[in-house]
Design brief:
The complex is a heterodimer of chains A (770) and B (496).
Chain A lengths: L15 H6 L14 E8 L5 E7 L1 H4 L4 E5 L34 E7 L2 H8 L3 E6 L6 H7 L2 E10 L2 H7 L2 E9 L11 E6 L5 E5 L4 H12 L6 E5 L14 H14 L2 E5 L2 H7 L6 E9 L5 E13 L5 H10 L10 E9 L13 H19 L3 H8 L20 H11 L2 H14 L3 E14 L8 E8 L5 E5 L8 H13 L6 E3 L2 E2 L14 H28 L6 E4 L2 E4 L2 E4 H10 L5 E7 L4 E3 L4 E3 L3 E14 L5 E10 L7 H19 L31 E6 L25 H12 L16 H12 L4
Chain B lengths: L12 E5 L2 E5 L8 H8 L18 E8 L2 E8 L12 E3 L12 H8 L9 H14 L6 H12 L10 H12 L5 H24 L7 E2 L4 H10 L4 E3 L5 H6 L8 E3 L9 E3 L3 E5 L4 H8 L4 H8 L4 H6 L2 H6 L7 H7 L3 E5 L4 E5 L4 E3 L2 E2 L6 E8 L5 E8 L10 E10 L2 E10 L6 E2 L1 H7 L6 H14 L10 H19 L13
Parallel strand pairs in B: 1-5, 6-8, 7-8
Antiparallel strand pairs in B: 1-2, 3-4, 3-5, 9-10, 10-15, 11-12, 11-15, 13-14, 16-17, 17-18, 18-19
Helix pairs in contact in B: 2-5, 3-4, 3-5, 4-5, 9-10, 14-15, 15-16
The chains are: A alpha+beta (770), B alpha+beta (496).
């Protein structure tokens, strides 16, 4: 195996053998210590109000119970809000306010998980209820916000609308989404010396957990080590909302001196952790008779739940993406952060971007409808370019834009126009089953929009046997980050990737890390690892040139060996010689993304280092009697720049797409009038299963391309962007619905397009009066 | 709390854990196989994703002697009680490797990049292993694809989008390479055969044990009389949720899986007579030719894992308003044989459901068998299931029809729905509206109206009342189109 081309090889996930054999160890799989207890959480039974009286006597005396705590028992800070305060670890009985049904009020530890869960049910709590705000509409109306609104503008949208030949004013709702990572939230905390804690946890953000555990225990961060080997899925749901369970476990560990495991049952996980934000999107668009957009006003209202969490940045990202791939000459965007008495919504793959982007694609579809043109024409007409239609609503200049090429290739490969004709013919012959087709692009901005998060660190050790140990700030949640980092380091040293171990993420090895989020894992940690590897490689080169009296040019790292002029040394020989010569074989690496900034006051800047692009065509069938649908065919071309690992990237594209299809079709969150989550298990909340994969599913990575920005080996981030390719499926469903009324009326469709929602939209077309 | 399985020192529950004969002397009656594996054996390759049988992360394979050698069935360990393993081989993911070599299904998952976060992977591997063991090697690619979807429909993956997993299953199930399980089959059979005598010994006992495995209807009837608080366990796919989701304890369980009479199948020219404990998987195979719609419905009944455990009698006795079989059995005019220690009687399906989760079963009775008439040329049985998701989802509405047309007129008709009322229920007014009428749009319109007299459905997490009613009405229109032989597509896919 030649190691020269480690970058670009479809190497299997570094844990693949362990995954398939059941040998991969997740937090809850760790062998329990001889002395270990299990923590469970008791949640509120009302959505809004106060605790009048909390009687935990029966909980305390329940079989197996060791200890019970309430907010009074938190030694340090009681609020664990990640950016802004507002997230009490446990609601305080006297002073606190309950803000969602299920909100943690107390916690127990017991000798087993089951006994802990049973004990929790024995609490007797009296409440003083207040009327909850549960609906987004209600919150919008009442201007009930977790954070103040933010606005972006460019040009004079009001005037542009007034002067436009055509205007449309419309709105639709987009539902939220449960992460449903297969591994629920889990943490294990082991108390150590001097009040210190070692935390094994399934988190995308070990530093956040470290910070919060230290804060609730009132100890310095250097006494808390957080270790994350892998997650059984994260998707944003373990960015901020993994910390509470470690904090609670740590409090118990401090009180009992015993290791504490805290894992949430699936129902607790679904009830007590936030989801993707639902949105209510309003738009007013003005355009000319060709379909060229002249002015556009948006009001994007995100349902944040009870606390800010990350909602400021999430609604911002919705605003940053409600242009998608289209130039808006005059635009005004208002983003609302609405408060409801529901669990605090949080990061979820796309981070608000999808909810903004779907608004733009709806605008395009509706313009096409009004002008009786194919939506693809309107899309192409309004695309950005890099010359004169190249400024975003947040005043970032579009410097590279390959969506027209991607769309052109996809149009041809998917036989878009021929299928469009076939579908028209089919629909004319088919009164019950209607087909629809849609092609939508994705332009997704890459970087944390909070600038300081765009930094990363790495630590590399080369040992005297030539084996290499890599550590960095990113976490592995299935996206293959560790594999890609190993490839990057292997590429630098020109060694076989099997020589490299990328170990668990640890806050005591690489400190002050950013969450593995915003698709940035490989971009920033890969660069940091590259930096560290290059430092060591330079030291080795310097050492070899001094030792062998050659110039640097005469030294070549190649094929797992090092050639020094005419001598070939094994990598291990080089490492050992360097060690004997007292050369440091350990180095840290650091990276910060250049250029990125955003000024909130002026709503302008360059929040994104670059954009990741792609496009998808979906063809669907719907049943106009039942609302059932089938995704018949999907074609995708997605740009990952110069792929570090095409197999992993393809997996991200396919998986992201199907997850997006779930968000927009079968996944429906439901609460009852009291604020109780009804869709609280996989029995009632349906994520896509194997038969939801389209029969024809052509997915490919855009050929022969590299990132125009100087990223790690000119690759592009791939975690989030493909999710939004699924907007094509939702648009295709709407296209099929429109066929019911022969495309004379633009169907109002909300997301998710469940069978019920589809039938509602179909019925509205059939009986316009009702 | 620990209970004695048996008088001290003697084993009662015996099974093979991979290749090891395991005897369980003490354990709670309601201990799940998943808890046993993870907590007691530290076999943590089997994962808990939901503890409710909805995600497949905990999938294991059970092997038992069948007609053509060992029969391998994937099931959810999170809702299988340990006692149900008696006499079977429990195969976990840790056992698939042969020395250090991955099993072909594992290797295919690596080769096709079928694992990302890896948490669902052991469950997928086990379902894929069951597929590998059961699929005929001469199957066509189309048959393999269908079987893949059938076997893996109960395994959720949140990362991959399934394409790589489907590819891995297609590849490995086509492999002609044998595995170490073939080589060990004789030994395994022998090990299992040696377990059987314990079961025989147990049949005659009356002890204090809390997980009871009667082998005859008489013993079963006696146990029910003797232990009024005991729960009858067939597949347990719903019962176990009381333990894992509602956190209840079950101290006395009577397991029906070893009562041989409940496994009996008699097929005559007029009837199927099917033992109540026959699994839905076996039932599915049996009625394929007579009732293609029912057979296709069964492919959407829970998941393969659920159908391998769940039984026909369990689905009926459970009396859920959203059970999928009762509407079909109602329209087919099925009859139930009910039995107790000293009585036997027959009840029509029509008379069985008396109220929400209430049946005609008396306290000491159990369902012994279900009689279903054979299909004939005159009747057409149509079944439609509407749910949010195709695989493994509970119906918003399940609607069944049994129609006899003569000269385009409705000579007889039975219509029943699940999900529309507190019980699975006939649509009598709707039937009356169609009886003796031509099956045309006019009479369908009248029938649709009549449906509002039959049902007042409710809003819940799965669907609104209005949607349920509209869909049920529209399914009458679909029926009319299909029976009228309209040459137009009436479903989005080849499913019920």
């Amino acid at each position: 195996m030649s190691s020269t081309h480690t970058i670009g090889r479809a190497i299997a996930h570094d844990s693949a053998h362990k995954h398939v054999s059941g040998e991969a160890i997740y937090v809850d799989d760790q062998t329990p210590l001889a002395s270990q207890y299990y923590a469970c959480i008791g949640g509120s039974e009302i959505a809004h109000g106060k605790v009048k009286n909390m009687d935990l006597a029966r909980v305390k005396t329940a079989p197996g119970v060791i200890d019970v705590i309430t907010a009074d028992d938190i030694p340090g800070a009681a609020d664990i809000g990640p950016v802004f305060p507002g997230d009490p670890l446990l609601v305080h009985g006297a002073d606190g306010t309950i803000e969602y049904l299920g909100q943690p009020l107390f916690a127990v530890v017991a000798t087993s998980h089951t006994l802990g869960r049973k004990a929790v049910t024995l609490a007797q709590i009296e409440y003083q209820s207040r009327p909850p705000v549960l609906d987004l509409d209600q919150a919008i109306e009442a201007r009930f916000y977790v954070r103040p609104p933010h606005e972006m503008a460019r040009g004079d949208a009001t005037r542009a609308l007034e002067n436009a030949a055509y205007r449309i004013n419309a709105c639709f709702a987009v539902g939220g989404q449960e992460h449903l990572y297969l591994e629920g939230q889990a943490s294990m905390v082991i108390p150590g010396e001097d009040g210190g804690m070692t935390v094994y946890t399934s988190t995308q953000n070990p530093t956040e957990t470290q910070k919060l555990v230290a804060r609730v225990l009132d100890i310095p961060m250097n006494k808390v080590d957080v270790i994350t080997r892998r997650m059984g899925g994260g998707f944003g749901g373990k960015e901020t909302q993994a910390a509470a369970w470690s904090c609670l476990a740590a409090i118990f560990a401090a009180r009992t001196g015993v290791a504490i495991s805290c894992r949430l049952s699936r129902r607790d996980d679904m009830v007590m952790t936030g989801k993707r934000h639902g949105f209510f999107n309003q738009y007013e668009v003005g355009f000319d008779q060709q379909g060229m957009i002249l002015g556009l006003k948006y009001r994007l209202a995100g349902q944040c739940g009870y606390s800010p969490d990350l909602s400021d940045a999430i609604v911002d990202r919705a605003m940053f993406h409600c242009d998608n791939a289209y130039y808006l000459p005059a635009v005004h965007i208002a983003g609302l952060r609405c408060k409801t008495h529901t669990v605090s919504n949080t990061a979820f793959r796309g981070f608000g971007g999808p909810q903004g982007m779907i608004a733009m694609e709806t605008v395009i579809d509706e313009i096409a409808f009004r002008l009786n043109k194919d939506p693809l024409h309107i899309r192409k007409l309004n695309f950005y370019n890099t010359t004169d239609r190249n400024i975003t609503p947040y005043h970032q200049e579009i410097e590279a834009f390959n969506i027209p090429e991607i769309v052109a290739q996809l149009e041809e490969e998917s036989a878009y126009w021929k299928r469009r004709e076939n579908i028209k013919a089919f629909n004319q012959q088919s009164p019950v089953i209607k087909k629809g087709l849609a092609l939508t692009p994705v332009k997704f901005g890459i970087s944390f929009t909070v600038s300081h998060l765009n930094q990363a660190g790495a630590l590399i050790h080369v040992y005297t046997d030539g084996s290499i140990h890599v550590n960095h700030g990113g976490t592995e949640m299935g996206q293959g980050l560790m594999t890609k980092i190993a490839q990057i380091v292997a590429q630098v040293f020109q060694v076989n990737p099997q020589r490299i171990v990328v170990s668990a993420t640890r806050t005591d090895k690489v400190p002050n890390t950013s969450p593995t989020a915003a698709s940035s894992g490989t971009d920033i940690n890969g660069m940091a690892a590259l930096n560290a590897a290059q430092t060591i490689k330079q030291r080795l080169t310097d050492f070899l040139s001094a030792e062998h009296a050659v110039t640097g040019d005469e030294i070549a790292f190649k094929n797992d060996r090092v050639r020094v002029k005419d001598t070939v040394l094994s990598f291990a020989q080089v490492a050992k010689q360097a060690w004997l010569a007292r050369v440091s074989l350990s180095a840290t690496g650091f990276y910060k993304t250049p250029k990125v900034y955003y000024h909130r006051e002026t709503a302008s800047g360059q929040p994104f280092y670059y954009y990741a692009n792609g496009a998808a065509v979906s063809e669907v069938s719907i049943d106009t009697l039942t609302g059932e649908y089938k995704l018949d065919r999907v074609d995708i071309i997605h740009d990952v720049g110069n792929s570090i690992n095409p197999a992993i990237d393809l997996g991200q594209i396919e998986g992201g797409f199907i997850q997006g299809v779930g968000w927009l079709t079968c996944e429906e969150l439901k609460w009852n009038d009291a604020g109780k989550l009804l869709s609280d298990s996989p029995a009632t909340y349906k994520i896509p299963a194997i038969n939801d994969v389209p029969e024809i599913f052509n997915v490919r990575i855009l050929d022969n391309t590299r990132n125009e920005s100087d990223t790690i080996f000119r690759s592009k981030a791939v975690g989030e962007p493909p999710l939004m390719l699924a907007i094509s499926t939702w648009c295709a469903i709407r296209d099929a619905i429109a066929a019911v009324a022969d495309h004379a009326v633009f169907p109002k469709l909300n997301a998710p397009a469940t069978p019920e929602e589809i039938l509602r939209a179909v019925t509205a077309l059939k009986n316009p009066s009702t | 709390m620990q209970f004695n399985w048996w008088e001290s020192g003697r084993r009662v529950i015996e099974f093979l854990l991979n290749n090891e004969v395991v005897g369980i002397e003490q354990a709670p009656a309601d201990l799940t196989v998943l808890e046993y594996l993870r907590d007691q054996r530290r076999l943590c390759g089997t994962k808990e994703g939901c503890a409710s049988g909805d995600c497949g992360a905990c999938t294991v394979v059970l092997a038992e002697p069948g007609m053509d050698g060992l029969k391998y069935q994937n099931c959810n360990s999170c809702i299988t009680f340990l006692g149900a393993l008696h006499g079977r081989q429990l195969i976990t993911v840790e056992h698939l490797k042969n020395q250090q070599t991955l099993h072909p299904v594992q290797q295919a998952m690596v080769d096709y990049h079928g694992a990302q976060c890896g948490f669902c992977t052991p469950g997928f591997v086990m379902s894929m292993f069951a597929l590998y063991k059961n699929l005929n090697r001469r199957s066509s690619p189309g048959e393999r694809k269908t079987a893949t979807q059938e076997y893996l429909g109960g395994n959720l993956c949140r990362c991959t989008g399934y394409k790589s997993i489907i590819d891995a299953a297609m590849e490995s199930s086509a492999s002609v390479q044998g595995d170490q399980f073939n080589q060990r089959a004789a030994d395994t059979n022998q090990q299992l055969a040696q377990i059987a005598p314990f079961a025989k010994a147990r049949a005659a006992t009356t002890g204090t044990e809390n997980f009871h495995l009667p082998e005859t209807c008489e013993a079963l009837g006696d146990l029910i009389n003797r232990l009024p608080g005991a729960r009858l366990l067939a597949g347990g796919t719903d019962l176990a949720l009381e333990v894992t989701q509602q956190l209840q304890s079950m101290q006395q369980i009577i397991y029906l899986g070893h009562v041989s009479a409940l496994q009996e199948i008699h097929i005559t020219r007029q009837h199927y007579r099917i033992g109540a404990a026959v699994t839905l998987s076996d039932f599915h195979r049996m009625i394929k030719d007579d009732y293609p719609d029912l057979s296709r419905l069964l492919l959407r009944f829970g998941s393969r894992q659920i159908r391998n455990l769940g039984t026909l009698g369990g689905n009926i006795a459970n009396a859920s308003p959203i059970g999928d079989l009762p509407p079909v059995l109602l329209v087919l005019n099925a009859r139930l044989d009910l039995q107790s220690a000293d009585t036997r009687r027959t009840v029509d399906m029509d008379d069985f459901f008396v109220g929400y989760r209430q049946t005609a079963l008396k306290k000491n009775e159990f369902i012994r068998a279900i009689s279903i008439p054979r299909a004939d040329a005159e009747h057409q049985c149509k079944v439609y299931k509407i749910s949010k998701r195709l695989d493994d989802d509970i119906s918003a509405v399940c609607m069944a029809f049994n129609v006899q047309l003569e000269n385009r007129m409705v000579k007889s008709i039975r219509i029943a729905c699940g999900g529309m009322a507190a019980i699975p229920k006939r649509a009598m007014a709707c039937e009356q509206a169609l009886l003796g009428k031509p099956l045309d749009p006019d009479s369908i319109a009248a029938a649709q109206h009549a449906l509002t007299q039959d049902f007042q459905p409710i809003d819940d997490v799965r669907a609104s009342a209005a949607y349920r009613m509209r869909v049920a009405q529209n399914l009458l229109a679909r029926l009319q189109l299909e029976l009228a032989g309209a040459q137009i597509p009436t479903t989005v896919a080849n499913h019920v």
